[in-house]
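chain below, 458 aa
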Amino acid sequence: MRIVICGAGQVGFGIAERLSTEGHDVSVVDVQPQLIANVRDQLDVRGVIGHGSHPAVLAQAGAENADLLIAVTQSDEVNMVATQVAHTIFQVPTKIARVRAQSYLAPIYQGLFARDHMPIDVIISPEIEVGEMVLRRLSLPGAVETVRFADDKIIVVGIMCAPDCPVVDTPLRQLTELFPNLGAVVVGVFRHGHLIVPHSDEMLRVGDLVYVVVPREQVRRTLVIFGHEEPKAGRVVIAGGGNIGFYVAQQLEKREPQTRVKIIEASRQRALYIADALHRAVILHGSALDQGVLREADIEDADTMVALTNDDQANIIACVMAKTLGCARNLSLINNVSYPALANALGIDAYVNPRAVTISRVLRHVRRGRIESVHSLQNGSAEVIEAEALETSLLVGRPLRALELPNGVRVGAIVRRGKAIEVNGDTQIVARDRVVMFALSEKVHQVEQMFRVSLEFF
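prediction:
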C-alpha cells in the first residue's frame, strides 16, 4: 500500500516504523525539520517538511497515488483539514484522523464527519481509547493487559506468572486436562525479552508473561487458576487530572458508583475545573511525587494508584512511591517504547501504552482480508487478529489439527452466531465464524491470506 502519514511525533513515527518494516510505501509529513530528519535517518520512508494540511505538501508526499492517509499531528484542526484535502483533491480512498477534543465528538455533532461534510473514515480518540483500557485493567486487576474481541465475547489477557503461581512447571496440555471446561487457550509467552508461541509440552516459568485467549465469562476463573484473585479496585488514586485521568474518573463515577476516587493534579486551575465537573471524586492540588500529598490522599489504604500524567518517569516514580507507602497495586501510563520491557523490574504491576493503542487501531485498516480487529503486542512482536472466515478460505471445513498452520500462528477462539465455541484439534471453522488468532509479526501476512476473498492461500 501507498500510505501518507501526517505527523512525525511518537505516534506518527511508530506507525511509520511498523508499516515500513512490512514493506509498505510510506511518506511522512511534518512541519518540524528535526522530526523529519529522524524519520529519514532511522526509517526506510520518505520525509517531507511542511504542513500536512497544505495541498502542495501532500502532493509532494505522493497523495495522488495514496491508498491511505493517516493524520496524527498534534492539532485536531490540521488533521481534519488534511483528510478533507486528501478526499477532495486527491481522492484518497481511506482517511484516518486523530481527534482529541471531545467537543468535536459529542453525539449532537456526529454528522460533522459524514462523507458529504468532512469525510474521515476512521476517527481515533486516544484519550477515550486509553481511558477505556485503564478502566478494563481496573476491573480485572490481576491482568497485566486486557484486550476485547468479537463484540466483547472474547478477552485476551496478559498474566504474569508470580513465584506463587499454581500452574508454574505444569505442561500446557495438562492444564487442558485439569480444566476441560475452561475454554482458555495460551497463545503466547513473553520470556527473557522474546515472545514465543508455546507447544503443548511447554511448561510455564516464574516471570513469564502469558497471553491467554478466553471467553469473557471465564476471565476471572482463569486469573484465579494463575494465582491472581485480586478483588476489583474499590479505592483508586489517580495521579494526573488531564484528559485521560478526567475521563477515567468520570466513567468510574458513572459505572462504579461504589468506587472511591481521589485525583492528584499539579495545576491549580485544572484541579478547580475537574472539581467542579466531578460529583463524588476528591481533588487534591499538588504533586504525586510528594509523599505528603500521597499520604493526604490516604495512599496506604488505596487499592490502586493510577498514574496518568504526560511524564513517563513521573508516572513510574509515583507508582513505586505509592506501593512503598502501602498501596496494594499500581498502573502506569507509559509512552516510551523502552520502558514496558522493564516495567515489572521497576515495580509496575500493569501499564498502558497510548502509542500501541493507536497503532493497533491503524493496523486494522491496513490489514487485507476480512479483518475485524487488530491489537499489537510487545512493541509489534506479535498481533492478535480477529477476522471473519469466508466460504472460500481453506480454513473452513477442516479440523484444526489438519490445517497445518504456520509456526508462530495459533487459533485462540472461535465465535459462532454470537457464542464462543470450544477450540480443540477436532474443531472445524465454518463460514462467517469470527476467528481470533495470535501471530508473530513475521507471520501476519500469512494470516491475512487466510481471510482474503480470493482462493489464493500463502
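The chain has 14 helices and 22 strands. Residues 164 and 227 are 7 Å apart (CA to CA).
thats it, cya
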